[in-house]
Structures are given as C-alpha cells and as structure tokens.
C-alpha cells in the first residue's frame, strides 16, 4: 500500500575485504545467514546476493547499501509473487 512503518528489523553484515575494493560478506538476520558479495568505494558499502533462503524455489535477490554516515537501505526482491520490500535505517560498526 506504499506506507512506511517502523519494523525493528535488524541484521549484521560482516565484510571480509581483500583491500582491493571487492570483498566477501556474510549477512545474518532472523531468517539465517546469506553469503554476499560486496564492493567498498570511498567508505560506501554495496553488498548483494542472489540467494534463495526459503523452501520456495523462486529466486530472491537482496541488496544493502551503507553510506559513509551510516545511513542504510536494504531491499529484498522476490519473484513469486513479484514484490519488493525496502528498509530504510542506519548501520553502526559493532565494537
């Protein structure tokens, strides 16, 4: 319906960089763990996966973008039924 509501959705992205700009990453949330590929560019993180984390054989694609100020966008693209879920929020470095 196009409305936004707080979700309380949380996840953890662990990035393992090779120092050359490309990296492997792992995304953990309440649904489980997914392998991501990541690109690091001037402090901006772009991580993405094409993984199916459910018993449904329809592909699911996910993308997480984190700006240098911690502002973040996470989107999930489903193909059956076709839909997109977007989360706006912020990320912080775990200590």
What is the strand and helix layout of this fold?
Blueprint: E1 11-17, E2 22-29, E3 32-41, E4 44-50, E5 60-66, E6 71-79, E7 82-90
Antiparallel strand pairs: 1-2, 2-3, 3-4, 4-5, 5-6, 6-7
Describe the structure.
The protein has 95 residues and is mostly beta strands. Helix content is 0%, strand content 60%. The protein has no helices and seven strands. The chain has strands spanning 11-17, 22-29, 32-41, 44-50, 60-66, 71-79, 82-90. A seven-stranded antiparallel sheet has the order 1-2-3-4-5-6-7, with no helix packed on it. Strand 2 and strand 3 form a beta hairpin. The radius of gyration is 14 Å and the shape is globular. It starts with 10 loop residues before the first strand and ends in a 5-residue tail after the last strand. The mean pLDDT is 81.
């Amino acid at each position: 319906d196009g409305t936004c509501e707080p979700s309380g959705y949380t996840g953890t992205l662990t990035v393992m960089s090779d120092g050359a700009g490309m990296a492997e990453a792992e995304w953990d949330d309440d649904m489980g763990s997914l392998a991501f590929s990541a690109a690091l560019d001037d402090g901006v993180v772009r991580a993405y996966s094409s993984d199916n984390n459910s018993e449904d054989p329809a592909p699911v694609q996910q993308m997480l973008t984190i700006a240098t100020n911690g502002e973040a966008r996470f989107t999930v693209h489903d193909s059956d039924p076709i839909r997109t879920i977007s989360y706006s929020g912020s990320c912080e470095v775990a200590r």
